[in-house]
């Protein structure tokens, strides 16, 4: 599976975003993509190679009623990428599709249960306008949940700010502060290797700052 | 405010992502950024200019106890960018911080109410380890809500797939199918201009396909 950094590099290119948008409503073949986007076929080939390598796109060959078989591309799987940036926050996350336990989820969010039924029943719907209504109710629930998520993230930001102000009162320097924030954000436990990577410092340096913080009684090293 | 496309272009660059990560734990000055990332100052200046233009980063000048004043950069605001890609889905969204109505939110999600209290009380906490516990409980709730969101998105994918199969049964062609999907995903109403942009076709073409779909009794034009 592609990692977050690679995905950002891929999505940083506008043509690739347009290709993915095209494929998201159905498979396409190379010439079709090149023509619709008005980009040379050679460039499209290179973009497709990168998207395939990342596992975002699959290639298959389909015989044509006339002429030679065509190479088609399609989206391989559903991916969600999230990026957060704030004065005390930098986060990226790559999510898979839902694969959790429904029962547990419905216990926490009983309002979701109706959608399980609704979408199951909608398999028999043959009218687009009715499917559109089902989708609409999902859209509405989605907006509510997004707001709940925003709320929790807002609270997270507040706690991060509180951490910063405690660090300032304790007279911690910049690196010490960053390490404290990383540990708190990670839920209390981070390896020295992860810390070093995230702060872009050597692991030795991370270990020595950690022991200073331990001496000051701020953190515990496991 | 920066739009989604510009943000993707900005984040597509690894150095810029590293700069944002650095700034997310506190303001930095140019030389500091250049040295830590081992990138030339001229290149950093250009990155900073782009980040400033996008409104992600602010510049301020701070006097130094010795020597000339320094230009500092800091993160300007909290931004969340989401990107979805799937066989029947392409979505990007840019969110602001929570600015909704708490009462309404707590009615839908009573479990969030305790966090309002918890984070308010945590202002008086002076121990990092205790703040870390508060953060931990937020992390846990965040994971649950994310799962609920994943669930709804999964159901959305299923309804989109049902739309596709109805379209196939109705014998719709590719563009017709794409237009139906866009309209359903948007909750039933999309302007012809938006449709044209999203499908990368002319507005004339969008209008003519819409009238075909109307003649077939699949859609209504307003």
Walk me through this protein's architecture.
The first copy, chain A, has 222 residues and is α+β, with helices and mostly antiparallel strands. Among the domains of chain A are: 4-75, Arc Repressor Mutant, subunit A (Orthogonal Bundle); 80-154, no CATH class. Helices cover 59% and strands 13% of the residues of chain A. The first copy, chain A, contains ten helices and five strands, in the order ααβααββββαααααα. In chain A, strands 1-3-2 form a three-stranded antiparallel beta sheet. Chain A has a two-stranded antiparallel sheet with strand order 4-5. In chain A, β2 and β3 (70-75) form a beta hairpin. The two termini of chain A are 31 Å apart. The interface between A and B is large, with 104 and 104 residues.
Fold topology:
2 copies of one chain form a homodimer.
Chain A: H1 4-11, H2 14-23, E1 28-29, H3 30-37, H4 41-53, E2 57-62, E3 70-75, E4 79-86, E5 89-95, H5 102-108, H6 113-121, H7 128-169, H8 174-185, H9 192-199, H10 203-215
Antiparallel strand pairs in A: 1-3, 2-3, 4-5
Helix pairs in contact in A: 3-4, 7-8, 9-10
